[in-house]
Specification:
This protein is mainly β and about 375 residues long. It has helices spanning about 145-155, 170-185, and strands spanning about 5-15, 20-25, 35-40, 45-50, 55-60, 60-70, 90-100, 105-110, 115-120, 125-130, 130-135, 140-145, 155, 160, 190, 200-220, 225-245, 250-270, 275-295, 300-320, 320-325, 330-340, 345-355, 360-375. Helices cover about 5% and strands about 60% of the residues.
C-alpha cells in the first residue's frame, strides 16, 4: 500500500535561490498552492507557498512552475452548460504541472474536477489550449475544440503540421504522446514528467468480530408492549471489498461490506403481555469511504464513514399479545481502526435506528471488528 512520504526534491525562490530538500509528496490531485518540506539535515517540517516560489519539483516524479495564465472558469457540468462557446478566462497565478518539457512544453492545471492544459516555449508566453463544451440547442451539446487549430499551427515538423493533431483528444495521455512525438520529430531533447496513475487497487478482507447490541421499544398507547431487551453480545461474520483510489498517495478508499449477526433476547414483563422474545437475524451491507493516516510502510490508522443497508427478518413475540414486526431500516456508522500489514482492528459505532413502526424504538450496535486481507 503506497503512502505519503518525504522525497528528494528542490524548490527555487523568486530570487533564483535553489534549495535541495525533502518534499512531502502528496501525489496532488489538484495543483497545490503550498507544500511541506524538510531540509536534508533536519527533521523540522516547514511550509512554503506559491507567494515565495517560482518552481519546485520531486526528482524523477513531478515538476511545477509558477505562471500567470488565463484559466477557463467555464463549467463542464452538463446541467449547467450555456450557449456561450467562448471560454470564460480569468487571469490567475498558479503552479502549472509540467507534463512534457522540450522545445514546446505541455502543462496541466487541475482544480477539483476541472482539468485544463497549456502549452508554451522558451520564447513565448504559456497559452491555454482551448476546449469547452456548450449547448447548441436545448437538447444538444457540442464542443469548441480550438485546441486542435492551436496545435496545428504550433506543432510543425519539417514545415508541416504534425501527423495526428486533428485526431488528438483533450486528455492527458493523448496530449502527452503528441508533445513527445513533436519534440522527437524536431530533434529536441525532452523530459516527460507525466506518469500514468496506478489503477484502482482492489482487496478482499475478512471482517469478523463482536457486536454489542441494544434494543428498546416504547409506546404510551400500548405500554403493555414496552420492553427493554438490554445489551447483548454476539458474533458478527463479514467480508469487505476495498477499492483503494489512485490519487493522494492512496489515502482514500471506497468500501463495501456484507456482514451477518444475530440478536436474541427473552424478557419477562409486568404487564398483560407477560413476556417478550426476539430472535433478530440481520444481514448488513455497509457502503462508505475510508481515509488512511500512514504511520510507516506497514502500519496506518484509518477512519470510516458508512451508510448501512439492513436486510432483516424478525418479530418480537409476546406471550399474551400480538407480535410486532421488525422493519428493514438503514443507518449510519463511523469507525476508527488500526492496520498492520494484512491485519486490522476497528471500533465501529452504528447510530441508533428505528426498527418497529409506530413505536419509539431504538436499535444501536457497537462493534469490535478484526480484519485480515486475503489479497
Amino acid at each position: 500500500m503506497a503512502q505519503i512520504s518525504f522525497e528528494e526534491g528542490y524548490f527555487i525562490k523568486d530570487s533564483g535561490q535553489k534549495t535541495e530538500c525533502l518534499i512531502k509528496n502528496n501525489d496532488w490531485k489538484s495543483n497545490p498552492r503550498e507544500f511541506q518540506y524538510r531540509l536534508v539535515d533536519s527533521d523540522k517540517t516547514n511550509s512554503i507557498s506559491i507567494r515565495e516560489l517560482k518552481e519546485f519539483g520531486v526528482y524523477n516524479t513531478s515538476k511545477y512552475i509558477k505562471s500567470e495564465v488565463n484559466i477557463d472558469k467555464s463549467t463542464d457540468d452538463t446541467n449547467k452548460l450555456t450557449d456561450n462557446k467562448e471560454p470564460e478566462f480569468e487571469i490567475n497565478e498558479v503552479f502549472l504541472r509540467v507534463l512534457v518539457e522540450g522545445k514546446i512544453s505541455l502543462y496541466e492545471y487541475t482544480n477539483g474536477n476541472s482539468q485544463r492544459f497549456f502549452y508554451g516555449s522558451e520564447n513565448k508566453e504559456i497559452q491555454p489550449l482551448v476546449y469547452k463544451r456548450y449547448k447548441l440547442s436545448s437538447n444538444k451539446v457540442t464542443t469548441n475544440s480550438s485546441y486542435k487549430k492551436q496545435l496545428w499551427d504550433a506543432l510543425r515538423c519539417d514545415g508541416k503540421p504534425l501527423d495526428g493533431v486533428q485526431d488528438v483528444s483533450y486528455n492527458r495521455k493523448e496530449l502527452v504522446d503528441l508533445f513527445k512525438k513533436y519534440n522527437a520529430c524536431v530533434n529536441s531533447g525532452y523530459i516527460e514528467f507525466y506518469k500514468k496513475r496506478n489503477k484502482v487497487t482492489t482487496s478482499l478482507n475478512i471482517r469478523s468480530g463482536i457486536n454489542s447490541t441494544a434494543l428498546e421499544i416504547y409506546r404510551a398507547a400500548q405500554s403493555f408492549k414496552n420492553v427493554d431487551f438490554g445489551t447483548k453480545l454476539s458474533l458478527r461474520l463479514g467480508a469487505e471489498v476495498e477499492f483503494l483510489l489512485p490519487f493522494n498517495a492512496n489515502k482514500w478508499a471506497v468500501i463495501s461490506e456484507i456482514a451477518y449477526f444475530k440478536y436474541s433476547g427473552d424478557e419477562e414483563l409486568d404487564t398483560a403481555a407477560r413476556g417478550a422474545k426476539i430472535d433478530f437475524n440481520s444481514i448488513e451491507i455497509p457502503i462508505g469511504v475510508r481515509h488512511y493516516f500512514y504511520l510507516s510502510n506497514n502500519s496506518s490508522l484509518f477512519l470510516n464513514a458508512s451508510i448501512i443497508f439492513n436486510l432483516s427478518s424478525s418479530e418480537i413475540l409476546y406471550e399474551n399479545a400480538d407480535s410486532l414486526t421488525i422493519q428493514q431500516s438503514n443507518s449510519l456508522a463511523f469507525g476508527l481502526g488500526y492496520r498492520h500489514k494484512r491485519y486490522a482492528l476497528e471500533f465501529r459505532n452504528g447510530l441508533k435506528r428505528t426498527v418497529v413502526p409506530h413505536f419509539e424504538s431504538s436499535l444501536g450496535t457497537m462493534s469490535l471488528i478484526f480484519g485480515y486481507t486475503l489479497f
